[in-house]
Fold this sequence. Notes:
four-stranded mixed β-sheet, transferase activity, transferase, Sec_Metabolite_Acyltrans, CAT-like_dom_sf
Amino acid sequence: LATHIWVAITRARKLKLEEQTTLSLPVDCRGRLVPPLPKSYFGNAIHLIHMTTTVGELLNNSNIITTVNLLHENIEAAQRDERIRSKIEEWMENPNLTSVQGIANHILIGSSPRFPVYVSDFGFGPPMCVRSGRGNKYDGKVT
Length: 143
């Protein structure tokens, strides 16, 4: 699905075939560390994976399966304990707040599946519908 979204947005942008495009996905690390973080852990436990290719390679129909496989391999590799710990060590040596908003032709796909938005009750019963609004949105962000 992520590859399909990447292709559709890139095609809609009508970019030149030689331009680069990047897809980023946040990967949840909570249960993937050895030992895993406790369920009571309160904080972020994610890191971003990035895939960059040219528009021409992405839009070439014969490469779509290759792109899907590469994305799958990147996600699987990003979920391994040693990869997560190496990312933490890299960040400890060079702490910085990463911004993806400046990356040209960028797409970020993310969500908050563990946030219990339909459990909240402010006195009127549970919400019938929850929407994220315009806050923190930019061209290329998919939530």
